[in-house]
Prior knowledge:
Blueprint: E1 8-12, H1 20-30, E2 34-39, H2 41-54, E3 59-62, H3 68-82, E4 87-90, H4 109-130, E5 138-144, H5 156-176, E6 181-188, H6 202-212, H7 221-232, E7 243-246
Parallel strand pairs: 1-2, 1-4, 2-3, 4-5, 5-6, 6-7
Helix pairs in contact: 1-7, 3-4, 4-5
The structure holds NADP nicotinamide-adenine-dinucleotide phosphate.
Amino acid sequence: MGILQGKKGLILGVANERSIAWSIARLAHREGATLGFNFVGEALEKRVRPLAETLDADIVEPLDVTSDAQLDAFFSKVEKKWGGLDFLVHSIAFANKASLRGRFIETSRSDFHLALDVSCYSLVAVARRAVPLMKEGGSLLTLTYIGSIRAVPNYNVMGVAKAALESTVRYLASDLGTEGIRVNAVSAGPIKTLAASGISGFKELLTNYEKATALKRNVSLDDVGKSALYLVSDLSSGVTGEVHYVDAGFRISLGLIR
Ligand code: NAP
């Protein structure tokens, strides 16, 4: 019996097989979970649907988290299909490329709003609609990065969005505890994905990171997926409001390259 046997979970944020969300989905399916997915626009549907089908997905529906209408439609389909929900993975972030390079002070109002809306408010938006379905408690999980607490070159407005996201995790956890709903974040080390390729100098960051971690390596998609399994499953039943680092020990090391 897998640790997610009989559980129903939504995985939001699969763009392709390199997505962190996809690695979580693969492992959750292996542990017995029944899964639902979203996609953004027709082009992405062509990529996400065939992937989701390999995991016998029950739900593959459009959801752009900036649209309240799509949020309502998506969760009403989930309610109709499943009538309940056990866990949700929020693996979504976006910022305009222009704001992920150069000086932070140049961030425009509209780029700031967009990054915070897609990368942070969306967790509140999905939680509002998911919570009524979690009648027997549940687990919400999001993905963050150490750029929330350290000034990482070029991460800029996304660092501010991740700081707000981590705070959102704590407020939601406090809000939802009485309903038996836990809310946590995994803070992942850098991994080459579609979203990461938008960050200027990312390749160099990966090379330096590897040398500066305690484990002297970068983290893998599997490293992140396995920890996510723990947080969405009953194995972490007493854990909420946490930011759990899956970073090969980068945070606790001096960051010196040796
Ligand atoms: P990814 O594969 O590009 O995933 C990002 C996802 O966000 C995509 O599926 C993207 O869909 C989705 N998204 C963007 N705007 C959206 C919107 N308006 N509505 C719905 N979905 C939207 O990259 P990833 O690295 O796996 O990112 C997943 C999460 O992990 C993000 O929160 C990221 O910040 C976090 N993270 C990544 C790293 C890393 O180094 N890769 C490290 C720590 C944390 P579209 O492609 O269709 O826009």
